[in-house]
Amino acid sequence: MISAAYNFAYLDEQTKRMIRRAILKAVAIPGYQVPFASREMPMPYGWGTGGVQVTAAVLGPDDVLKVIDQGADDTTNAVAIRGFFEKTARVRTTTATAEATVIQTRHRIPEEPLTAGQILVYQVPIPEPLRFLEPRETETRKMHALTEYGLMHVKLYEDIARHGHIATTYAYPVHVAGRYVMDPSPIPKFDNPKMNDCEALQLFGAGREKRIYAIPPHTEVVSLDFEDHPFRVQEFAEPCALCGSTGVYLDEVILDDRGGRMFVCSDTDYCTSHRPSGPDDQSAAEWENAR
Amino acid sequence: MSSLSYSGGFAEPVFAAQAAFRAVLDAFARPGNVISKPAETRPPEPFLGVTGDLLCTLADTDTPVFLAPLADEDSAAAAWLRFHTGAEVTRDASRAVFAVCTSLKALPALSQFPQGTAEYPDRSTTLILQVESLEGGETQVLLSGPGLAQERPFAPKGLAEPFWHEVARNNGQYPRGVDFLFVSASAIAGVPRSTKIQLQGA
User: Fold this and answer.
1) Residues annotated as region Disordered (chain A) (predicted)?
2) What's the pLDDT tens digit per position in B45-85?
3) Is there a cis peptide before residue B46, judged by omega within 30 degrees of 0?
4) Do residue A134 and residue A276 come from a single domain?
5) Rounded mean pLDDT of A120-125?
6) Closest chain B CA to residue A14
7) Subunit contact A28:B194, Cβ cutoff 8 A
8) Cβ(A105)–Cβ(A68) below 8 Å
9) Cα dist. A42→A48, A83, A103, A255 in Å?
10) Looking at the structure, do residues A188 and A54 belong to the same domain, yes or no?
């Protein structure tokens, strides 16, 4: 039931206008973090308040919404946010990536390539890629203004000096449209190449930090690296234990207390649709038993 | 203030504004792409219906709107805008968050508008330019940059070479600069500051 006390998609119209203006400026300046007057949402910071506000500002009655949390449609955060918009906007929801027009995501990009009609909304905890290197906002602003990104390269270099390779595996910094260095939110670096020249519009919302940024479709997104240490994504030795897919991002699942484990797709929709013989095949039964 | 000012707003403000916003979002995300947008509002002259839609979608008490040519305080257009959006109609281009240009000859130099600062390039004007048509103009430019898989030709009517030189200069100071929305009677197209402009034959 839609609650009569709330506007469509929860936010009032003036808030939506303010967020919409910020989104438009974000799209006009790819990778630049636009400050916005983030509202308190009926969920704690860190649960996707930024993503929820961006979704609420773009969502219309004809949209089909998908929400994922680390690739899964059925984890707490995804279920809660999907329920929130079913209740406040009465939009149709789906778990199928191809069916969705708006996809809100926490820390993954779906495996299935996105299309031109889709908008991907990221939940972002810390939007400033330079924050752990320089805590002062006044200084990071200036560094972005002057394209002063040497410090980020020093950080990656220190990784190499210490570990022999770039040890950053998630929230791996990217250079957007040749101008701004941007935090892609804590997606695994495995997903970074999917941001480059993507067909879909990508919007990023950070509620606590009050920033919105964007990558328009077909925009160059380059992961930072060095000539002698080029950017590489994670590789997995085995295919997914449930669907047998290779070249996808896998989660490790602990099966027992004797060291048993399996690797399965983190993208649950992709995994379900790629199982060879439906849900009753052997590995799925094992998986059920393990639970 | 005539009674014209009170009528002609969105019939369904929430959903009409959402639909109009998505059209604008698409226009900025895919520069030069002509997006069909039926007019929902009926503002007084010289505003087109689609211009009224965009203003009702994006403007409010936080966004001073500049009108070119300069509107009288009690002109029908200014009164309509104030009544339906609450926005202040300013005569000072340097305060404009939005600028509506209904006659290109009256458009001040782009440098008169806020361009944003190096630290906050988002603090700049969005220009809404009314044109007769978004296609079939005599001067064609090639657009490239974010949002465009390949160069896209763009030729709205009534925009001559000097205007496009100014737009190209605007891109030259990226990430500072203003953003453009071109509006006709039934469609919109966007050219954000990130878009590179190449004059054909130049």
Assistant:
1) 272-291
2) 999 999 999 999 999 999 999 999 998 878 999 999 999 99
3) yes
4) no
5) 98
6) B60
7) yes
8) yes
9) 11, 13, 20, 35
10) yes
Q: Do A177 and B194 touch (CB under 8 A)?
A: yes
Same domain (yes/no): A158, A44: yes
Q: Give chain A positions within 8 Å (CB) of B172.
A: none
The CATH number given to whatever domain includes residue A206 is: 3.40.50.11310
b/e map of A111-147 (b: 16 or more CB within 10 Å)?
beebeeebbbbbbbbebbbbeeeeeeeeebbebbeee
Residues A147 and A214 grouped into a single domain: yes
8 Å CB contact between B16 and B53:
yes
Packing angle of the helix pair A13-28, A49-58 (nearest 10 deg): 100
* Predicted confidence (pLDDT) per residue in B115-150, tens digit: 999 999 999 999 999 999 999 999 999 999 999 999
Q: Do A29 and B57 touch (CB under 8 A)?
A: no
- For A134, the domain range is 13-223
Our CA-based measurement puts residue A161 at a distance from the nearest CA of chain B, in whole angstroms, of: 33
- Whether omega for the bond prior to residue B175 falls within 30 degrees of 0, making it cis, is yes
Q: What ipTM was assigned to the predicted interfaces of this complex?
A: 0.97
Residue A270 lies in a domain: yes
Separation of alpha carbons A84 and B68, rounded Å: 43
Whole-number pLDDT of residue B201 = 64
Residue B174 token pair: 């990226």
Q: What is the pLDDT, as a whole number, of residue A6?
A: 86
How many domains does chain A divide into? 2
CB A250 within 8 A of CB A243: no
The reply to whether A208 and A277 lie within a common domain is no
pLDDT confidence of residue A282: 58
The pairing of strands A221-223 and A211-215 is unpaired
Shared-domain flag, residues A169 and A255? no
- Grouping H, G, I as helix, E, B as strand and the rest as coil, residue A140 is helix
Residues A23 and A75 in one domain: yes
- A53-92: per-residue pLDDT in tens? 999 999 999 999 999 999 999 999 999 999 999 999 999 9
| Residues of chain B neighbouring A7 (CB-CB closer than 8 A) | 14
With respect to residue A277, please indicate whether it lies within any of the assigned structural domains. Answer: yes
Please give the positions of A annotated as active site: 31, 240, 243, 265, 271
Confidence at residue B5, expressed as pLDDT on a 0 to 100 scale: 86
Domains of chain B: residue spans and CATH: 3-199 (3.40.50.11310)
Span A218-247, pLDDT tens digits: 999 999 999 999 999 999 999 999 999 999
Backbone phi and psi for residue A98, each to the nearest 5 degrees, phi listed first: -70, -25
Q: Are strands A64-69 and A92-93 parallel, antiparallel or unpaired?
A: parallel
Q: Cβ A216–B146 below 8 Å, yes or no?
A: yes
